[in-house]
Amino acid sequence: MGAIRPLLMSLAMMVAAEAALADDYSETIELFKNAGESAAFFTGSYGYAVFPTIGKGGLIVGGAHGRGRVYEHGRPLGDTSMTQVSLGLQAGGQAYSQIIFFQDKRAFEEFTAGDFEFDAHVSAVAITAAATGTAGTTGASAAASGGKKDATTAGVYYKGMAVFTIVKGGAMYEISVAGQKFSYKPRKASSR
Question: What's the predicted TM-score (pTM) here?
Answer without folding.
Answer: 0.72
